[in-house]
Design brief:
Elements (H helix, E strand, L loop, with lengths): L2 E10 L5 H18 L2 E7 L2 E9 H13 L3 E11 L11 E4 L12 H5 L9 H12 L7
Parallel strand pairs: 2-5
Antiparallel strand pairs: 1-3, 1-4, 2-3
Length: 142
């Protein structure tokens, strides 16, 4: 089939505290490791931004499952595309939080966030800027 990437944003339907996020990551890392899926999850003020990379069929099935997850709402596809290589090939599911990192400081996105926009409103070009910033090691990845 070939490699693909799906990038989406969503809003938490129920509050995700540290314990809930740790549980979500444990579950995702186990499943993704077995399924050949890599990526990153960003959490910012009740919003999620996630990159899924892997075989097209595997990430499409996972994304369909995520879209139906009652813990999320407003699941918004930002990018769905074939890829040549992975940004997050070493991570079954990396995690970054904008806390202390300053999502509004991302080069090329400052005016977007300063204007009151959020992750659910990112264009594909803006999402790619954010992905490159995270993949480039500018943020603390857990």
């Amino acid at each position: 089939m070939g490699l693909s990437r799906i990038v989406y944003a969503s809003r938490e339907k129920e509050h995700f505290g540290l314990l809930e996020i740790q549980g979500l990551l444990k579950e995702a890392r186990s499943f993704n490791g077995k399924s050949g899926i890599t990526g990153v999850l960003l959490y910012d003020q009740g919003l999620f931004f996630q990159v899924l990379e892997g075989e097209s069929e595997a990430i499409t099935l996972l994304y369909q499952k995520i879209a139906k997850d009652p813990r999320h709402e407003q699941v918004t596809t930002v990018i769905q595309e074939p890829i040549e290589s992975r940004y997050f090939g070493n991570w079954s599911m990396a995690f970054v939080s904008s806390y202390g990192e300053g999502i509004g400081k991302v080069s090329g996105l400052k005016s977007f966030f300063d204007a009151g926009h959020n992750l659910l409103q990112l264009s594909p070009v803006q999402a790619n800027l954010l992905i490159q910033e995270i993949a480039g090691g500018q943020w603390t990845v857990l």
